[in-house]
Design brief:
The chain contains 35 helices and no strands. By secondary structure, the protein is an all-alpha fold. It is globular.
Length: about 575
């Protein structure tokens, strides 16, 4: 049957309200990538009581970052459909509403959803209700859920390991041997167990309790590992740091290194340097303390000092033998590259301005303090710049401080977000984008998407580009993606201009595509000439199309081979 005739028949049936036609036509449009047109038909199907349509609508809106709308559609059928109950529970869980997620997993399981039974059981296990969780996973496994079977085996193995660690620790406690107590728990720090702690937070509390017992036997090292588990909760950061400081006071040399790493990740540059020096002195030469000191000095353009610290590691070759040595060798090569590139060295003109800026800062207020901090920042005097940015305390100053620490100072993670938030609250698109990026790098796609939406709505091109990419690549929603690409292109970005133009050519909107693809060609995007030729061909301007095909053939012959017969014609010798 002719596809267009079939589409017309389905549309007529849907318009007439025939049973099943709403969904059938919506599925056809969705399959063709025309989700904008499909959504109203999915809505009609959902309003007519089709739970699968409700679920599909919720998924579409969730992929678009429209979380409130996604929740609304899940709730229209969650009370009677296990799939919608599962989707709603997942949505709430991702938003941090664990209690709400548990309620809907429970409800979905009662409706017969084995996925709800499995996920609900995993949530119970996450807070340590092992027996109930295992019983429910056994039921779900018997119903054919492989995820349940795998989770049950993993939890059973984890509990066996936990009993083993407890028994080994008890023996060490009975003997009063702090070293044996520490060794009894070594496997807890295996990197392969990281996923276990992320999925089952109760195991974090179990590990913390075990290390507290080991520390009570007298082992200072156990205090540090106890602190590492406590530090997973940002609200207990001060408690974790105090434990490591106690380990240092009790003579554990490695504690100073951990305190240095934490200070650096928290943006406390002077404190980090002091602890790294302490670690090196206490240990008689701590390789990674020396390396981190070298990197800190490189960031501050104290290059001679940086080189001394890096060479103190014992590595001075151009290439490293293993991964650790290569990191050190690469840092040494970076020093040489910085010395050879004036653009990467402190600018002399800012050094000349510094005394005047300092004088104004001492007499002035926030604006003068910011100006002086900015000059110090440009001169790579990061600890001093941080002090003056903090003193200024304005949204602009805090944003500059956050960027300095996160992008050039070695700070990491979500602790940097508060520096960006005041500027974002005032409508700074770049600050909103940076918050989204930090959350994206931390693996929190939902929060990242919310912030990228805010940034894009404020006119940030890269945020719009990210939203377009996630809509197309992760959500399979080319129409939504195209709109974001167009918005990104308005900010002057070439790649999204190309992506928008290509999308328009594919759907036959060649006139709309032409200016975007010309912009991409001017930006030297390698695929743009071919697609501009396609757009011109679609507009009936054959001679222009052939000229752009020749441009593509001359500039990007290898790339052009991947396209079809029209491209191959352009590669032939016209003579």
């Amino acid at each position: 049957m002719d596809p267009e005739a079939d589409a017309a028949r389905l549309r007529a049936a849907a318009a007439a309200g025939k049973p099943g036609a709403y969904r059938a036509y919506a599925e056809l449009l969705t399959g063709r990538g025309r989700l904008d047109e499909a959504l109203p038909w999915w809505a009609r199907a959902a309003d007519a009581g089709d739970a699968e349509a409700s679920r599909t609508l919720a998924i579409c809106h969730k992929d678009r970052g429209e979380f409130a709308e996604a929740e609304r559609w899940y709730r229209t059928a969650a009370d009677r459909d296990g799939g919608c109950a599962f989707g709603l529970a997942r949505l709430l869980q991702e938003a941090g509403d664990t209690a709400g997620a548990e309620r809907w997993y429970e409800h979905g399981a009662a409706l017969g959803s084995v996925e709800c039974k499995t996920n609900g059981a995993v949530l119970l296990a996450a807070r340590g209700e092992w027996d109930t969780a295992l019983a429910r996973l056994a039921e779900a496994s018997a119903e054919g859920d492989d995820v349940a079977a795998h989770s049950r085996r993993a939890i059973q193995g984890m509990l066996r390991d936990l009993e083993g660690w407890r028994a080994a620790l008890a023996r060490a406690e009975a003997e009063g041997d702090p070293e044996e107590a520490y060794e009894a728990l070594r496997e807890l720090l295996d990197p392969e167990r990281r996923a276990m702690f992320e999925r089952y937070p109760r195991m974090v509390a179990e590990a913390e309790a075990l290390y507290a017992r080991a520390a009570a036997v007298g082992g200072a090292k156990a205090l540090v590992d106890q602190a590492l588990f406590i530090a997973r909760d940002d609200n207990r950061w001060a408690e974790a740091r105090a434990l490591v400081e106690r380990a240092h006071e009790r003579g554990y040399d490695g504690a100073a290194y951990v305190l240095g790493v934490w200070a650096e990740e928290n943006g406390e540059l002077r404190t980090a340097e002091e602890w790294y020096r302490t670690a090196d002195e206490a240990d008689g030469g701590h390789m990674w303390a020396c390396f981190n000191l070298g990197v800190l000095c490189v960031r501050q353009r104290r290059l001679a000092e940086a080189e001394r610290w890096l060479r103190a590691t014992g590595v001075d070759g151009v290439d490293g033998v293993d991964e650790s040595e290569e990191r050190i060798a690469a840092a040494l090569r970076d020093i040489a590259a910085i010395r050879a590139d004036p653009e990467r060295m402190p600018p002399a003109e800012w050094q000349e301005r510094l005394p005047g800026l300092r004088g104004r800062a001492e007499e002035g207020g926030p604006d003068a303090w910011f100006a002086y901090a900015d000059a110090l920042d440009r001169l790579y005097r990061l600890p001093e710049a941080a002090e003056w940015y903090r003193k200024a305390g304005t949204p602009r100053a805090l944003l500059a401080l956050g960027r300095m620490l996160y992008e050039g100072g070695g700070a990491k993670g979500l602790r940097m977000v508060p520096y960006y938030e005041p500027a974002a609250a005032e409508g700074d698109a770049g600050a909103a984008y940076d918050i989204g990026r930090i959350h994206d790098e931390a693996g929190d796609r939902r929060t990242a998407q919310i912030w990228f939406h805010r940034a894009a709505d404020l006119g940030h091109g890269r945020a719009a580009w990210w939203l377009g990419w996630t809509s197309e690549e992760r959500g399979g929603d080319p129409q939504h993606a195209e709109r974001w690409y167009v918005r990104a292109a308005r900010s002057g970005l070439v790649p999204p201009a190309f992506l928008a133009g290509r999308s328009m050519v594919r759907r036959g909107a060649c006139a709309e595509a032409e200016p975007l693809l010309r912009m991409a060609c001017e930006g030297e995007h390698e695929e743009a000439p071919y697609w501009l030729a396609q757009a011109l061909r679609g507009l009936g301007r054959t001679e222009e199309a052939e000229r752009w095909l020749r441009v593509a053939a001359d500039a990007y012959p290898d790339l052009l081979h991947q396209y079809g017969e029209m491209a191959r014609l352009a590669l032939r010798d016209p003579s």
